[in-house]
Amino acid sequence: MAGKVWLVGAGPGDAGLMTLKGREVLRQAEVVVYDALVSGGVLAMIPEGAKRIYAGKRSGNHFLRQEETNKVLLEEALAGRRVVRLKGGDPFVFGRGGEELELLVEHGVPFEIVPGVTSAFAVPAYSGIPVTHRDYCASVHIITGHRRADHSYDIDFDALVRTRGTLVFLMGIAALPDLMNGLLAAGMDPDMPAAVLERGTTSRQRRVSATVGTLERVCAQRVIQTPAIIVVGRVCALADSFGWAEKRPLAGVRVLVTRPRELVSTLSDMLRERGAEVVELPAIRTVPVRDMTNVDAAIQRLSRGGYDWLAFTSPSGVGIFFDRLIALRDLRALHGVKLAAIGQGTQKALLKYGLRADFLPSVYDGETLGRELRDVCAPGSRILIPRAAIGNPELIAELEQGEQLSVDDVATYDTEYAVAPDAEGLLLADVDFAVFTSASTVRGFAAAVPDADLSKVNAVCIGRQTAAEAQKRGMRTWIAEKATLEALVKQVEEAAKEICINEE
Asked: What is the percent of the chain with per-residue pLDDT over 70, rounded to a whole number?
């Protein structure tokens, strides 16, 4: 079968700026060839089984030469695979996308282009700089700051100055003195507003404002880090009034989320809405037990009226159990059965099947669920608990103290550690907080980074059992007031404030 290549723009950093089509294509990839400027948030979207090939380029240090990258795309496609060439920003805006297509066209390999959000427009927008404004300019121009092989520039500075438009220089930090001098020599006003925008759309974005005449000196004092772009034009003066990204509650905060891949999106979206940059590192995965004999037997008994209560301890348990139930019977098997859920997340999972929990505990943990459920159950009640093979023993211990309660604790799924191929790099990527939603995510995270110093990890935990697991590994911990995602996000905000106060 013939393969195919997709050139996909990953956007400038914020994973939320990845296009819907780009995400969909990436989900179906068998091979992903990616650059250094692709953010961790976007890399987390790569399917688990996909082959990853790093073709990073930064400041002249190329992991793969362009010719080698072109050859890799061709070879993987000729082998019949779905290949995604994942590039920061937009592949056709100084991304060398055209060069990568030439070899594919020569060999008749089919391809598609998925445009991305370019840093030339998104990064200024995140800094409050509109690249066009009817009162300030009539055009915008994107210029590469790269020099030719002979170290000269293919830039007509006189023409740029005459446009009186906004100028956006990409990849030009190393050439900043030459670029500013070129504009000044062409007659640009030394007092023309200018800015360097560093690591735009990420939690570490920074704006250095000055003028064309002073930008070089100011940047030398501030130590600029790449990637960064240069913007020149009167619109730069609007940044103080239009700046918005830094005003969000979690602006400047980078958070590592460790939930299972199938559950990670809700928490990540909530954090991003508050301004955090989210790096997803699923620490565990939940899979149905290999031998479903006991699960099937419980479903048969359930359908014959053999249980009074069905209790769930996780959203994963809900999904796996009902997938099996529907494969064998249908929801009519629940006739007369009451439902218990350990918390709101599990309750939401039930709602996807049109079901609402009859009982939620006052505190969302296994011990409280067991203690309070036994008090509402009638004597002699029969309870089915489909959950992880290694579950919290406190739940069963509490239920066993109830009056003549019959409890079937049925292993429905296994919890496995999910080690990402770049886990160590993600941990070391200047992360401020790691968020844990269960003790098993703590254990999976620790297994993913066995050589890391976990005492440097700031852990925000959903409950005391999760926090205890993190504390055993030396992490500094915060515990959410309630075992809900909303409370967890709120605790990240409070912890971020605390650290800032301590640093000041």
From this structure: 94
Is the pLDDT at 58 greater than 60? The verdict is no
Q: Tell me the residue type at 379.
A: P
- 458 beta partners: 476
Asked whether the predicted pLDDT for residue 230 surpasses 70, the reply is yes
**Segment 385-397, tens digit of pLDDT:** 999 988 888 999 9
- Catalytic residue from among 4, 14, 21, 35: 35
pTM of the model: 0.82
Q: What gap in Å lies between CA 469 and CA 438, rounded to an integer?
A: 9
CB 166 within 8 A of CB 141: yes
Pairing status of strand 338-341 against strand 309-312: parallel
Q: Is 57 a catalytic residue?
A: yes
pLDDT at 501: 41
Instruction: Give the pLDDT confidence score for residue 332 in this predicted structure.
Output: 93
**Residues near 220 by beta carbon (within 8 Å), at least 6 away in sequence:** none
Distance between CA atoms of residues 388 and 368, nearest Å: 18
> Whole-number mean pLDDT of the chain?
91
- Of residues 389 and 32, the one with the higher pLDDT is 32
Q: How far is CA 88 from CA 34, 57, 82, 376, 390, in A?
A: 8, 11, 19, 56, 42
Please, where are the H alpha helices in 352-428? 366-376, 393-399, 423-427
Instruction: Name the burial class of residue 4, with classes exposed (0-12), middle (13-18) and buried (19+) by CB atoms within 10 angstroms of its CB.
Output: middle
* Position 212, amino acid: V
DSSP 117-151: --HHHHHHHHTT--S--TTT-S-EEEEE-PPPTTS
pLDDT higher than threshold 70 for residue 83: yes
Active-site hit among 14, 57, 87, 432: 57
pLDDT of residue 503: 44
Phi and psi at 103, nearest 5°, equal -70, -35
Q: What is the DSSP letter of 456?
A: G
Residue type present at position 237 = A
439-455 exposure pattern, b = at least 16 Cβ within 10 A, e = fewer = bbbbbbbbebbeebebe
For residue 363, how many C-alpha atoms fall within 13 Å in the half-sphere facing its CB?
Answer: 13
Which pair of structure tokens corresponds to residue 501?
């106060």
Tens of pLDDT, residues 120-134: 999 999 999 999 999
Question: 249: cis peptide before it, omega within 30°?
Answer: no
Q: What secondary structure does DSSP assign to 263-328, as a single string? A: THHHHHHHHHHTT-EEEE---EEEEE-S--HHHHHHHHHHHTT--SEEEESSHHHHHHHHHHHHHH
Query: In 3D, which of 255, 244, 249 has the Cα closest to residue 275?
Result: 249
